[in-house]
Amino acid sequence: MTDPRDRILAAAASLLESGGEEAVSTRAVGAAAGVQAPTIYRLFGDKQGLLDAVVTRGFEDYLADKTQRAETDDPVEDLRHGWDAHIALALDRPALYALMYARPREAGHSPAARAAFAVLAAHVRRIAATGRLRVAEDRAVAMLHGAGSGVALSLVALPPGERDPGLATAVRESVLAAITTDAPAGSDPGPVAAAVTLRAALDDLAGFTGAERALLGEWLDRVAAPSS
Questions:
Q1: Which residue range forms the structural domain that includes residue 146?
Q2: Of 77, 162, 197, 215, which cross-links 158 as Cys (Cβ 3.0–4.6 Å)?
Q3: Which residues bind DNA (predicted)?
């Protein structure tokens, strides 16, 4: 690894996982990366800038791993695998995960972070398109994101021996039961699942002007909107 920036980020990430945020000092990072403090300041500004860059790199690595897995013909099962990968990241790199999700700051809104969130939204969109989503897409994404990060942070806050090994799976299945259905929307007598399914296919509907498509989307959103 010859690039100073890469060496610094790798050294900071290693110190973060071995000793927590307090271990990531410019002196320790410089020594581990083989650079002088002015190089760190020039590339990252200050310690917080360095930590933000570590978080951004963490999102990039997470996104690369998450998108390597090929999609199957079962979007719900693909979502399960995505959830499990999210929990695995938290358990494998708890200090980094805490910075990514407990204290996101600006790094949590980096292009990589937004792309990682978009992967989750794409999973939900695929479920909606098959008629198996029983709530609005935005609500489903929010529920999955909140529950996933919440249970992950709860687990990493505990010593390994005190963690409930089945907690993440139990929460995952509870959320999936709340947002998905085994039957496609066509066999569901209620209007919400049908509206969600049609909303997912809105961009593919032919014969509508842009204004008409926007109006239809607004109506479908109102049908699918949660009552509380």
A1: 69-224
A2: 162
A3: 25-44
Judge whether 13 lies within some domain. no
Helix, strand or coil for residue 214? Answer: helix
Q: Which residues have CB under 8 Å from 109's CB, separation 6+?
A: none
Tokens 């990241």 appear where? 89
Whether 55 is covered by a domain: the verdict is no
Q: In the block, which residue shows the tokens 């693909």? A: 78
In DSSP terms, 180 is beta-bridged to 133
Q: In DSSP terms, which residues pair with 133 in a beta bridge?
A: 180
**Entry pTM:** 0.76
pLDDT digits (tens, 9 = 90+) for 66-94: 777 788 999 999 999 999 999 999 999 99
Smallest Cα–Cα separation from 134: which of 190, 76, 218?
190
C-beta of residue 31 within 8 angstroms of C-beta of residue 37: no
Token output for 125: 């969109």
Burial of 46 (0-12, 13-18, 19+ CB in 10 A): exposed
Backbone angles phi, psi at 201, to 5 degrees: -100, 10
List the single range of 9-18, 106-115, 141-150, 182-191 with lowest mean pLDDT.
182-191
Let me know if residue 220 belongs to a domain: yes
8 A C-beta contact, residue 220 and residue 195: yes
Q: List the structure tokens of 226.
A: 């949660």
CA 144/CA 103 separation, integer angstroms: 19
Residue 95 lies in a domain: yes
Helices 47-68 & 4-19 angle (0-180, nearest 10): 90
